[in-house]
Structures are given as structure tokens and as C-alpha cells.
Amino acid sequence: MDKIPILKMGSFLLVTIQVDLYDRLALNLEADLIRMVDKTGAKGVLIDISAVNIVDSFMGRILGNIASMSRILDAQTVVVGMQPAVAITLVELGLPLNGVRTALNVEKGMALLQSMIPPGSGDEEITEDDHISV
Amino acid sequence: MAVVKEQDVVPFRNRVREYAVKIKMGLVNQTKLITAASELVRNMLRYANGGKIRIEIVTKGRDNGIRLTFADTGPGISNIDLAMKDGYSTGKSLGLGLPGAKRLVNEFNIQTETGKGTTVTIIKWSNG
Amino acid sequence: MTLDASKIFQKKKQQILETWIKNQLANDALREDLISSEEARTQSEELLDALVNRLRAEKEGASLADGFDPVLEYLETLSITRARKGYSPRETGAFLFSLKNALLKTLSEEIKDDPKGLYEESQKINNLMDDLTIASFETFIKGREEVILRQTDEIAEISTPVIRMWDGILALPIIGTLDSSRTQVVMENLLSQIVETGSSIAILDISGVPAVDSLVAQHLIKTVSATRLMGAECIISGIRPEIAQTVVHLGIDLSGIVTKSSLASALNYAFTALRMEVRKVRTETK
Q: What's the CATH architecture for A6-115?
């Protein structure tokens, strides 16, 4: 079964979705990610969907779920790099993803996460990508 | 093209995209069409254990479009008006599948009979 | 003696042509400002040739559908070029009706002693010419529609410029009414520019939008939501007082959107959001 890799960068988790998701894969991602947030005590989750061509209502719901679940676990979620066509489609679909923070690209998303996290809680400095298999 | 399990969805979406590219549909309209198709395929998988999909290129005047027909032999929809309403779902979902798909395409037609199955036909024009 | 209209026309072609051209001149159908009279003459002659050939072919037993095509095809190209050149429908109609008159006139001159045959042949020609006229009108309108479509595309393209106001700030002045296809063009342009420039603030200026009804408002809200999904903020500026009034009267909720009355105040807001300020440079006085 395919898996989406989750990278840990300091107190943030970084997920880059590179393939078109089908529902099972998205559900797995949701479960894995939440487990990782809990295990690492991450303060922020960054989901890069710049390579995703299609976000339908199911995917949108998963993104919303991840954001709400992480919030309960005291982590902020930022979705970055949404393609224009995807954004237009989501709005037309009636799914403006109100609970999800967004940013243009990974860099801006990181900055947004940094600014959202109260100072003092981000105790680790950002290290190189260390890949953690789940 | 028959779709019976979840893994069929991605190849199906790619097929639709191939057709859309063939008639030079714009990226946004492509995305809308495929998203709508994705919603309908999910419905078919979830409520009717899969079904058959036909992809066709249609022409109206100077405009080309793609027609997708989703036919299943599932339980059918007992109340279409309710099913077409935003936020209504018998399963545990957002209830955006049918109404959302309708908003994303140019023509949307649904026929259903309880116990016999459901057929949904959508058309998206390349400049529409 | 069997009557053969095609033979008569063949024989009298030159005469018909003369009558036709004369008719056209009398009708003002010949627009010498649009095409030269020689060109009009060639066009007329070619059409007449095609028509006579077609009548002969029909007499010889060729099927109607096959024989019809060259005439119709010629007529179609003619109508379309005329539509593009700016002929009025009346002129295009007169062009064909004057041919009908010329044909009928020749027929009546040639078949003097056989009223029944004359009637039958005339009726045939009448029907044929009517069909051709209808067909040419259809193509004429199609030609016009093509012109309109092309212009619509052009307008859509030129009317949605995205302007880089500042580093990280885009502005998009909307002029004219926002319908759904226009909204899509606006959204696409705006969003792709946001990606390209990495801007985090977009200002939609609606000073040039004549009226905002609930549909237009919905389109605006959609654009704002889509911008937000991309990770940028969208400000709507240029809201005139009467638009504010209608928006409230219609009960449209714009509370989730940052709105400013002028582009200047929107820009000011954007500067604040980006933690920038504009200062007057102090002039050195000695």
C-alpha cells in the first residue's frame, strides 16, 4: 500500500503530496499525520499540495479534518501551494475550506507557522530534513 | 469503462484528462470536470459498489465538450430533491457530492429508480 | 417540346447577368464602397455559372444533394465574406432576389406560348432561389456571430489586466458587468498572477462596475474565497456609496471580506498588512 512520507523539520511536520490521491490513501495520511503530531509533539503541520491536480469534496474534508484534529492536539496546520484551477474548483464546489490556513508556497507557509506559534514553545532549532518512517 | 474498486479512480481520472486535453479544454474547466467526475465516481463506489462509466466527446456548433455517463445498478436514490441539496448526506460526508458536481459542469442529468440503480450524465463544454 | 430551363439559362447567360447587375444597381445592393463593381461582376458570374451547372446536372438525373453543394458552398463563402465586410442583411438579400427576378424575367421572355410550362418552371426557380436565400441568410448570420464571438473574446482579454502595484501587492480593476464566464477569466488571471509574482495581497477594484446585484456579489465572494485558498488576501475597493446601499438592501453579507472605499485606502491597508509605511521625504532646509 502506498504511503505519503511525512518529514519532520524542527517542531514542524512537512507533508508533500506528490501523487493524485485516492480516498484510502488520503484516509491513511490523515491517520498517520495525526499519530505523528501526537508522537513528536509537533507545533505545526505544513501540507504542500502544489503537485495535486484534483481536490474534491472528500480530499477537502480530509484537509479540514487534519486541521481540526491537529488544533485539538495543539498544532497549527497550513496548506500551501494550491493551484489556481484547484482553488477555483473548490470555491465553485462550495467548499471554501474555512478552517484551514493557507499560504502561497512552502517558504511563506513556514513563516506563517513561525508567526502563529507563541514564542518559547518552539524550543528546537530547525534541523536538516530527517525522514521518519511511520 | 468499469470502476469497481477505489484504485480504479485514479486511472479513470487520467482517462478523462486525456480526453479533455484532446479537445483543448482549458485547465480550470478540466479541473472542474475531473473533480465533478471524482465526486460521482465516489458516490458510485460507496453506494452502489461500482458501475460503468462512458466517456464521449460531443459537439455543439463550434464548441466541443465531454459527456460522462455514470451508470450503476445500486439501490437508487429515494429522494432526489433532498440528495441535490447542499449539506444533505445519507452517508457520513459533507453532502456536497451531487450538488457540487452539478455546479461544476454545464449540464447535469440524473435518473434513478429505487432498487434498480442510478444514471448520472454530465456534460462540460470546453469553453463553458 | 419539353421545357428546359437550364438550357435557356445557359443560352441567355449573358443577358441574365446584365439584367441581374442592373437590378443590383437599381437596388443599391452593389456597395461600391465595399467591393469594386468588377469584383461584384465576377462574383455574380461565378454564382450564375454554378447555378446553371447545377440545373443542368439535375436535368441529367444527378441526385439533388450532390448537385446542390457547389452552389450552396459558393453562396456560403460569399455570405460570410459579405457579413465580415459589413454588408447589411437587406443588401445580401437583395443580391439574391435580384438574381431571381432576372431569371424569372428571362424565363417569361423565352417561354411565351406555354403558360403552364412557364408557371411550372417559374415555380421551380422560385423555390430553389428561396431555399438558397434562406441558406445564405443562415450563413450570413453565422458570419456575423463569429465576428461577435471574436469580439467577446477580445473584450474579455483586454478588460482584465492584473497590475503589480508594489512588491507583493496586485491590483485588478474590474470594468463592466461581472457575469460567471467573466468571473472565471478574472479569477484565472488573478490567481495565476498571484502564483507568478508570489504576491500575498490582491486588490479588486470595482469602481468600474456599474451595479452590484446578488449575483455579482456572489462572484466577488467566490473570487475572494479562491484567493484565500491560494494563501493570499483579497481586498475589495472602489465601492461607491450607492453600491454599498444596494448591497445592504439586498441583504448580501460581505462581512467576511475586507472592503475599502477607494483604491488608495486599500493600498494603505495592504502596506500596513505587509508592515510597510509610506513617508514624505523631509526636504533639507538650509
A: 2-Layer Sandwich (3.30)
